[in-house]
Write a structure and sequence with these properties.
By secondary structure, the chain is of the alpha/beta class. The protein is 41% helix and 20% strand. It has one domain: Transcription Regulator spoIIAA (2-Layer Sandwich), CATH 3.30.750.
Amino acid sequence: MIFDKKDNTTTVFQENISLAEFLKNLKEAYPKIKDDHLIINLFSFSALTADDILEFLQISNEHRALNKSFVLVTAKVSYDDAPEEICVVPTIREAHDFIEMEEIERDLDL
């Protein structure tokens, strides 16, 4: 698992492992990165489904409850196919834009 921290945002990249192993490693590393906005880069996975995205629901909900952004990045599952509770975007740039928008909303108490 690779972490790329810039300011208050950490991007998490996965190595060539299974989704289940990646989730396990993410949960173990979570206490170290819980204070940052998180971008989870899933580009290395050759196949993902909406059900796979649901595997991130618990950690996403926990993180968002801390008033932090949690964004999954993949082009394999469209925004329309993903559950409403999880933010899925197709590019890293869009993930950063989404976090910026959420920070503005939090600052304005929206």
